[in-house]
Amino acid sequence: MKKYRILVTIIAFVTVFNFVFGQENKKPNIIYIMSDDHASHAISAYNGIYKDVAPTPNIDRLANEGMLLSNTFCTNSICGPSRAAILTGKYSHQNSFYKNEGGDPFDGSQETFPKILQKEGYATAVIGKWHLWSEPTGFDYFKYHTLNGEQGSYWNPVYNDNGEKVQEKGYATNLTGDFALDWLENKRDKTKPFMLMFQFKAPHRPWYPDEKYKELFEGIEMPYPETFNDDYKTRELTAGKTMMTIENHLANKDLKITPPEGLSPEEYQKWLRIGDKGEHVSPSDTLKGKALKKWKYQKYIKDYLACIRSVDDNIGRLLKYLDEAGLSESTIVVYTADQGFYLGDHGWYDKRFMYEQSLRMPFIIRYPGKIEANQKNDDINLNIDFAPTILDMAGVETPKEMQGKSFASNLMGEKEKCWRDAMYYHYYEYPKWHNVQPHYGIRTDRYKLIHFYYDIDVWELYDLKEDPNELTNLYGNEDKKGLIKKLKRKLFKLQKEYGDDISLEEMREATRKGMIKY
Ligand code: CA
């Protein structure tokens, strides 16, 4: 009897110990959801101009149950480079992935956060868009879009499925959703915590919506952004020289214009690209001028937002799965995009510039029990911080070579006293695509100073408080000289800190390497 009592006491003790300490030490699961080119002002939780007409209820659910970050910025606003910065926690000049095209493939031998988590006992997978030209490292399983410059296709896409090329039937966003759920339910090692990178191809150009959403916004006139008719005054050599305007640089393919009859397959492929370089493109002979520009915007923005509807649906499927599988409480869910995007802002589509709409990334995080519901955060966070933050939340130390910093404690209400008060940016790809001059710059909570340097030498200064739309370059103003001096000092200090204090000639070398010309 006594022996029995001792045994019961031991079992009870072990159970309580495991409950108290085992639960504490249990690693959280992590689902990192990232879409391609989804601007924060196209998410209703961010309160943009489309919030009523094109809501995103499932992404908003994450914000309602977690925290929405309003000042998360990209360090090089373009697909591949942002992804490389996210994985490595390092700037482009440190991880060597500067451009989408024309540079070297991503060096997968570098330290990345998935690789570290895998070593720490996580089951890891990446499903959907990858776009780094070399096969993923650090994942137990990968299935990513290949072909079309690593962009993949919206319809019947070809994936690299753990090293094997397979063509799947259907719509990319839904397929990526299917494969993510399949991995979670059937493929992963369920004895381990997991980290899934769930990455949509959508809503990247050429914005092909699912069949069922092709007419989603029929009969509605989408609102226009305030800077739709920007005349690029005071920014003629930079913003004024792009090839990404709604008015003159959308192609037949982007606008889904009906092709003329009788084209050969080669002629048809060529015809699809007409419009990119400023050629006149119109759905009819009579539609011209400002009316044509508005028509193009409506076509573009409706297709873009319809693609997002499918992304939001598939996030809804995932959240429902987590609820039903009893995983919601133990899983961190992040929603972000590889950069922001111009939704007719400044008259543009695309990204690249250090101006607000493409610099800013959406970032929403739900972490039950650690981050309270319905929170907002406006600290300056960067994409190079994602890796240290995720590692930190998994209880793993950040390797020294990573340049970002964990903002995990900021999210949990213990803001570091000396958190970053300015961010550094550097963009390289030129002239293709879209003719955006390479530039670097600094953004504080109020000011932005940019240097465009490739074959021009132009500085721009914006006061984001007085001019949030960045329409007036103040650089030449006499009364701003003191401010400029101060900002430059801070900018050069950051360049030194990050190891980017090299000559302009050396910077141009990254752009020149494998340069793709028009
Ligand atoms: Ca992108």
Provide mean pLDDT, rounded: 95
Bound molecules: calcium ion
Strand content: 15-25%
H and E string: HEHEHHHEEEEHEHHHEHEEEHHEEEEHH
What is the CA-CA span between the terminal residues? 88 Å
Q: How many distinct helices?
A: 14
Helix content: 25-40%
Q: Which residue ranges are poorly predicted, with pLDDT under 50 across at least 5 consecutive positions?
A: 14-24
- Tell me the total number of β-strands: 15
Rg of Cα set = 24 Å
Structural class call reads: alpha/beta
| Overall 3D form | globular
Walk me through what this model shows.
The protein is 31% helix and 16% strand. The chain is globular and about 90 Å long. The longest helix has 36 residues, at 289-324. It has helices at residues 2-25, 57-65, 79-88, 92-95, 113-119, 172-187, 252-255, 265-273, 289-324, 356-359, 386-393, 408-411, 481-498, 504-512, and strands at residues 29-35, 67-73, 123-128, 141-145, 158-161, 164-167, 194-199, 331-337, 360-366, 375-377, 381-382, 422-427, 439-444, 447-452, 458-463. The relative contact order is 0.17. With 518 residues, it is an alpha/beta fold. The strands form 2 sheets. Strands 1, 2, 3, 4, 5, 6, 7, 8, 9, 10 and 11 form an 11-stranded mixed beta sheet that branches. Strands 12-13-14-15 form a 4-stranded antiparallel beta sheet, with helices on one face. Helix 6 (172-187) packs parallel to helix 9 (289-324). The chain binds calcium ion. Calcium ion binds next to loops. Residues 36-37, 79, 338-339 line the site of calcium ion.
